[in-house]
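worker-03 picked up job from queue 'complexes'. Input manifest follows; two sequence lines, order preserved.
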Amino acid sequence: MVDGASFERAAVIGIGLIGGSFALAGREAGVLREVVGVARSERTLRDAIRVGAAHRTTTDPLEAVRGADLVYIATPVIASARIIEQIAPALEDGCTVTDAGSTKREIMAAAEALPDSVGFVGGHPMAGSEQAGVGAAQADLFHGSSYLLTPMPGADEALARMRAVVRAIGARPVVVSAEVHDSLVARTSHLPHLLAAALCGALGDACEEREFIGSGLRDTTRIAAGPVDVWREILMTNADEVLRALDGFLDEVGSYRQALAEGDGDALTQLLEDARRSREGMGDP
Amino acid sequence: MVDGASFERAAVIGIGLIGGSFALAGREAGVLREVVGVARSERTLRDAIRVGAAHRTTTDPLEAVRGADLVYIATPVIASARIIEQIAPALEDGCTVTDAGSTKREIMAAAEALPDSVGFVGGHPMAGSEQAGVGAAQADLFHGSSYLLTPMPGADEALARMRAVVRAIGARPVVVSAEVHDSLVARTSHLPHLLAAALCGALGDACEEREFIGSGLRDTTRIAAGPVDVWREILMTNADEVLRALDGFLDEVGSYRQALAEGDGDALTQLLEDARRSREGMGDP
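worker-03 finished. Artifact:
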C-alpha cells in the first residue's frame, strides 16, 4: 500500500475496460479496499463481479456513491458530465471525484457544479486496448503509461491522493491544465483517430482487397476500429482544437500535394526526412 | 523443390532486406541453386555472404547477370529502371527477369527495352519490415503474404516460373495489370504512407511530448519511419494515382470537418460507423 493512496470504498461508474482495469489494479495494489461497480447492463455487472473488479454492483449511481470516498467515472465524456450533475447531491464530504475521459475542458466545466466539500481531479489514463468491456480489464493495463491529471483549483488534497493512487497502479502522474491537455491530445490522439477513420471511409471497398493490403495500412488504421460512441464524444467535446490541428495537417498535406503535382523530388525528400525525424522523437516504433 | 520453380543461378541486384530475404527463402526452399549478390557497398556484400543470402558477390550488375537464369532486381524503383537498361545486353537467352518495386507502370515501361529472348514479370511482395538491410533478411519474410505479379505480354513461361517460385517461398502469387496494381496500392499503401508522414510533419515537436502519446499515434505513424529514398521514388513514380487517392481522402476529411464545425453528432456517428465497417473489411486488427 502506498501512503495516503488508500480509499475505503470506491464507486466505479461505468465499469468497462478502463474502470474495470482501474478497479483490478487498485485492489491488487491494496489501495482500494471495497469497489462498488456501476453499469446500465446487468450482464456487465455480473462480468465485473466474475473478473474480480467489483465487490458489489448496482445500476444506480446515487446508491453507489453513498459512503464512497472515491468516485471514478469511466463513461464516455458527455455521459460523465451528466453523471457528475446527477451524483452531486449524494456525494460524501471529503470525497475525491475523478473521471477517465479523453477530453478535459467539458468535464472540468461540469465539475464546477460540485459542492466545495468534494475534490475533483480530471483524469486521462494514456492506456487502452482495442478490446472493450470489463471482460478485457487487466490489472496491469496502466503499467508504464502516463496518467494525465487536471485538478480543479483548490483540490490539493484530492490531487495528492490521485497522484499516489496513479503511482500505486504503476502509472506516471502528469499534472496539466485542461486547456493544454485538450490542445495537445487534439494533435497526438484525436487528429490521428480522425485521419485513420477518414482513410478507412475513403478506401471503402478497397479495404476488402486484402491481397493489396500490407501491415502498413493495418497499423495506420487500427484505431479506426475503436468504439464509435466514445470517439464521437471525444471529437465533439474537443471540436475546436481538433479543427485547429486538422488545419495544420492539411497545410502539411498541401506541401506533399504540391511536390507530387510538380514532380519536385527534392521537396518530397525534404518533407519525408522531416517526417522521419519527427517520428523518431516518439522513441520506440 | 517445387516443379518448374528451380533456377540454376540467380543474380539478386540490390541485396538488402527484400532481395536478401528472397535469396534466403529461395535457397531454403531449394529453388535457387546459386545466388550472386549485387550491391554498391562492400559492407552489404560481406553481410550478404555472412547471413547466407549469397554464395558470391560483385558490385557489377553486368558481371552478375552473366550465366544467370533469374535476375531479381530489388533496388528503389527508378534505380531498377536504370539497371534494366544497363543489363539488357548481357542477359542470357531464356532468362527470367523480375523486380520487387512498389510501383509497376514505370518498371513495365522500362522492361519494354529488354530483348524478346528474356521474360519480364514485375513483382511486388506485400511484405516488409521497419528494419532495413540484408542483416535483417529473413527466410520467412514472405510467408503467408500475397506477392503481386505483373507479367509482360507474352512472358508466359517466365510467369509460370515466377508463380512457382513465389509459392515455394510461402507466398500467394496474385497476377494483376500494372495499371490496376498502381491504382490500388496508391490507395492501400502509398496514400497511407503519405498521410502518416504528413501527420508526423504537422505534429513536429509535439512528437516529443511522450506523456501525451499513446499506442494509437505510434501505430498510425509507424510507417513514416520507413526509408526516405525508397518512398520518394514510390510516390514520384505513382504521383498521378496518389494524387487521385489523396483527393478522395480530402473529400472524406471535408465531411468530418463539416460535422465537427457544425456540431453535427449524428453525421459524425455515421462517418465513424462507416469507417469502422470499412476497417472490419480488412480482417485481422
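worker-03 released lock.
Chain B touches chain A through 91 residues (CB under 8 Å).
Strands of chain B lie at 7-13, 32-38, 56-58, 70-73, 96-99, 119-125, 146-151, 172-175.
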